[in-house]
What we know:
By secondary structure, the protein is α+β, with helices and mostly antiparallel strands. The protein is built from nine helices and four strands. It has a four-stranded mixed β-sheet, covered by helices on one side. The longest helix is centred in the middle third of the chain and has 35 residues, at 92-126. The chain is globular. It starts with 6 loop residues before the first strand and ends in an 8-residue tail after the last helix. The mean pLDDT is 95. It binds glutathione. Glutathione (GSH) binds next to helix 1.
Amino acid sequence: MSLSPHVKLYGYQFSVYSWIVRLVLVEKGVAYEWIEVDPFASDVSPDYLALNPFRRVPALRLGDFSLYETSAITRFIGDHFDGPLFRSASTFEGACVDQIISIVDQYGYWPMVRQVFSHGCFMPLSGEAADENEIRDGLKKSEVVLGAIEALAGDDGFLVGNALSRADLHLAPMVSYFTEVPAGAAMLAEHARLSRWWDSIQSRPHFVATKPDLDLLG
Ligand SMILES: N[C@@H](CCC(=O)N[C@@H](CS)C(=O)NCC(=O)O)C(=O)O
């Protein structure tokens, strides 16, 4: 009997990008093995750097096949494994999913996560000195991102169309971290459609089950 290779996900427990891939795997019903890699450590192993030379997480491995870059990984999971969820399609909706993922990656991650969340939550909890200027600048840049996605979001509780897509799961972990900071939560509340979306997405059982435990910090 030959066993098919199983998915190995290399990620960091507090990483939003690793969380996105975990979410897509569990929503799709794909079992995986988690391998913890801290990309901020000084001693990231050469074996991991062979998987991702940019020293970022996550990376995925399936037998001899390996992949990094989160949107490529989630597209692969949607298309490779059985079931209709997250199949890519060259339709209007497929393009809108890619558009939101790209906005999140290019304009959202840094201000929402690395400026507002890191300096407003992660660093204080870890006992590191935070910089208020980073929070202020991050909030200003996040406002543009939230405004753009608010204008694109649908009314049915999903960002694109009337069903869960990779776009929802790409944004949700970043909004979760952003709203850990009171000023971030207040900013999200000013966006009616995104607030409704957030209420429904954050109560999904898989979202709750995969949420990093920030109490472990510090
Ligand atoms: N473009 C990458 C970004 C991944 C990324 O930035 N991951 C963060 C953790 S959430 C990381 O590894 N950071 C390490 C660093 O900035 O040195 C992707 O889509 O996977």
